Hints:
Strand order of the largest sheet: 1-11-8-7-5-6
CATH class of the largest domain: Alpha Beta
Bound molecules: guanine
Helix content: 40-55%
Amino acid sequence: MTVLDGKQIAKEIREQLAREIQELKLEGNVPGLAVILVGDHPASRSYVLAKERTCKELGMHSVLTELPESISENDLLDCIQSFNNDEQIDGILVQLPLPSHISESKVIETILPEKDVDGFHPINIGRMHAGDEHAFIPCTPLGILEMVKQTGEEISGKHVVVVGRSNLVGKPAGQLFLQENATVTFCHSRTKNLAEQTLQADILIAAVGKPNIITEAMVSPGAVVIDVGVNRLENGKLCGDVDFEAVKPKAKHITPVPGGVGPMTITMLMNNTVLASKWRKK
Ligand code: GUN
């Protein structure tokens, strides 16, 4: 059994990205990311600051725009437009969730698909489903795939079971593994007999947001278990969707929370921004 060290895998990818960024800079191409935060939700704020810090560490150009909770939808769309037109900016990320008076889909669809490093724009979703190599793939699913690839396990022909069908994680993660020639099952809150499904998994991806929803009895021996859940318990501790200590002895590879998929997500955002910069300036 191995516990997959997301921090270490992310660090190695970042070192590679930093080298690529240095080379791009020599050609006069500095990858640039614009991050927009609306309101002051503490978790969103800390994610956004981490994204900005990582940009700086890797030598990228970054701009953080903090807007008040009360901003109108039109003013936010204008802000996005100005980054669409900004030659120094390759990637634009609007941190979600947004206040309820702002339409998330309008915001996402205002970002130029060529700068949509989150991979949330319908054009990029469509490109991903079509297997287009110029699609931006959402960062968390991309991080999950990278971690599974790092295990050296074959993906083609394997049965991947995804628990959770969010637009940000579950749906694109399943699609990504389908592109890798896996057989994919999606499970969700209406799935009857969840354990019957999860026991079929060679690779089990838990992306629900409920502590310990995946128990030891739901995992088949030798499975690869990827835990995407980030749940804060009453005692302040973070935990995933998987009962880690109980499942660990049964799994061939398992990701911890924290320190598993989390550190990969920001790294994949940096990866997508470097790609955006290369694709736009070619
Ligand atoms: N909120 C939580 N995760 C994400 C993400 O990956 N991108 C954006 N834009 N907002 C998020």
